[in-house]
Amino acid sequence: MADVVVIGAGLAGLVAAIRLARAGRKVTLLTKGLGGLQLSQGTIDVLGYAPERVDSPLAAAASLPATHPYKVLGSDAITAGVAYAQDLLGDRLVGTAAHNVLLPTAVGALRPTCLVSPSMTAGVVTGGIKYVLVGFRQLKDFYPKLCAANLERQTAPNGDPIIARAVMLDLPAVADMADSSALAYARALDDPSYRAKLASALKPQLREGEVVGLPAILGHRDPNAHRHLEQLLEHAVFEVPLPPPGVPGIRINEALTALAKDAGVRIVAGAKVVSFESAGGRIISVGQATAGRIRQYAADAFVYAPGGFESGALAMDSYGTVTESTFGLPLHGLGPDLVTAEDPGNQALFRVGVGVDSGMRVVDTAGHAPYSNLYAAGGILAGALRWTEKSGEGIALASAVAAADSILKGA
Amino acid sequence: MRSLDVDVVVVGGGSTGVGVVRDVAMRGYKAVLVDRVDLAQGTSGRFHGLLHSGGRYVVSDPNSARECAEENVIITRIQPTAIETTGGLFVTCPDDDVDFGDKFLEGAAANGVAATEIRIAEALAREPRLNPRIKRAVAVQDGSVDGWQLVWTAAQSAKEYGAEILTYHRVTSIERDGDTVSAVMCHDAKTGEDVRIGCHFVLNCAGAWAGEIAGMAGCHDVQVVPGRGIMIAMNHRLVNSVVNRLIYPSDGDIIVPVHTVCIIGTTDVKAPDPDHLPIPHDEVQEMFDAGEVLVPGFRQSRALHVWAGARPLVKDSRVGAGDTRHMSRGMSVLDHSERDGLKGLLTISGGKLTTYRLMAEHIVNAMETQLGTTHPCRTAEEACPTGSADATYVPANYHVTHRLHDREEDRTVDQILCECELLSRRMFTDKLAELPNGSLDDLRRQLRLGMGPCQGGFCTVRAAGVAHEVGTVDIDRATGLLRLFLKHRWLGLWPILYGDQVRQTALDNWIFSGTLDVEHLPEGAEVV
Q1: Are A230 and A237 in contact (CB under 8 A)?
Q2: Measured between beta carbons, which residues in chain A are less than 8 angstroms from residue B512?
Q3: What is this structure's pTM?
Q4: Domain range enclosing A68
Q5: Chain A residue numbers touching B466 (CB-CB < 8 A)
């Protein structure tokens, strides 16, 4: 029997599992899929908009509505969560939760975020920056001309104009293939000879002082790919995240999964948690629908980090009834007009989720815990519009660390 | 101001209008068609896709039934690429009147509608997802029709006979010289230019908007009642043939398989304004309930998109003012020389997409009567051009493998921009070259861009990126196109958002807001 069962293999689930295992707990992590990190842009956002653009996430988090996860967690929990990610991922992350930087997106918006991969930092917009965005004819998710033209319509934070232009390369990731994914390019760029090929095609087209923006494909497994390419090009290079599958997210996922395994976390993937047993106000075990039968996993405590509507952990049926699909937990944020004709990014539906107390124990709207040993973390939490706010990773980290610490304290 | 002179101006680019301009052009007149937006952007693109066998009307409207039966055969012959010959079933559901089937079979026999009662087991073998508790089943020759394909192939035929098609040309006024129509004034929304089209005759085929057009010529009180109906596309072909309830025509009693989806329809409520058609929550629920009766488990399927269309119904004093379903489905031609003393203007309304060719024939005959000329109508004999399809194309049932087969040839040399609908980059850039001023919705209607399960999640940025990259649009317009397309997709999504489509919407939000931060791009251009 495990001490703790963690459900979900996204940022929240992995981080909670590692923290508990490193503290000596026996942890089993159950997951249906590969976790949400590969769907993400691969940066650590804390708070980008509230609703105006935020410069200091910690300060801005303090003035969010009381129902927001950050208000439940408190500023120290955010700091602790982000600090723990930096402990775990070390030189894979650069930045601080105290302030945001602005990075170009694939369509040329300037997106606020906190901690980024070192392969992205050269792209941070500053006064006088000159970008050259580089695309590949065979990669359909990045249009450098569109990105550059939109960047040129904006200014740097100091008011300077942004200079940007585009270069398109005709360089397949796989010979004779006209349609390759970002991941295929990332795998090709794990090979130093392909990096040399890319550099020889690109270098003659670069101009003095330009910062080179490439789609986020600079190596899947080889952490030196970015640095090596900078050396070959003799220019600063940065990665622009693409729609999923997102290579920077995949890298973080693989790094955290390796850390979890090293810490002794038992990961059981590929099957959904479909049932549970409870007694005396406690969860006794959960059932995972493995091949042929439902296998029970008993534990003293459970961390529920399955994501929100994007994973199906939260669902709405054709009558408009919203449910949490594993435990049937009470939901927060319900009400009329959950979905309206307004902007899809600002729907009340996506604020619906599970409520927690400051120790991340699941509670109903009256503050009562239906199960004394059930904790929640990440995208399942009520009160945030993670994508619109650019707050997903910060919430995941802060709540995962807080949930793990509650369990470790024996709360 | 631009000006041109023609014999006939056809107002309205729906199925009736293109049928009319084709007929007029084939009879040797110099003709131009104008529409305020794209072809088939009104009612002809907002219906359920049913090519009637006539079965639906054998009891309620025998004349329409007979016309449908005849036109079904003609359309399938002259426009095969627009048709899937799915066949259809009328089934008596558990709570339906069993005896209605007898009236149905009598009516079918009397009106030339092919109909054969089949065993329940046979019906369930054909359609395994059908309610196993059905009590009777009648097989008919319903088909499924792609309204856009139908309209474009007819328009293409008209062009080959010298007609000109002017989309995004809104009629601003109709000029008269004494008691005769002399010109139609238009505004070109894409270029901002005004256009004067001198003519001898105007054929008003503006459907639900026909009253407004007639009013511009000083002919007031033309009573066309917009009958609003909602339709919901489900993400699978839950049925492979058209399934109707064997009852007096009612709401939500038809499911039509079209391409990769099937469409349930419809409701029928009098609408005050055909430009503002709401999609009420209770009607959406009614469709799901009705779907559940025909196909148990319907509510567990994924709903992709919802839309509303406005039927142009002729007002008939015999029925209550709020009940549009039982107004005449029949067509009627208004001769404004008799009604209003204005020569050179005819208005057509009523009818249905299946009988569009016949409607055209009627109004063009009426025009020739007024002009004192006669030319034979040949629209039923001559096939429309099939575009890239083989000349020997035979309409067939859709199979998922067709599209894969289409892409097999070029899969290593071209990119797929829209995985849901297997749209290649080349298909997109070719169409973009034809429609350089097109919005992404204009392109969608031709290419099915963004019409699949992800509802534009992956293809929208690619489409805007390619259009900007090839130089067709500047950055203001590219950003405007991107934003407008996302806005329009959402309009057809939010009223039916549930189940897996919620999950998809969350992923789409993750992409557009989370990763790309599209909402904070600098403003784009106003796009039409």
Answers
A1: yes
A2: 344-345
A3: 0.94
A4: 4-93+250-408
A5: 143
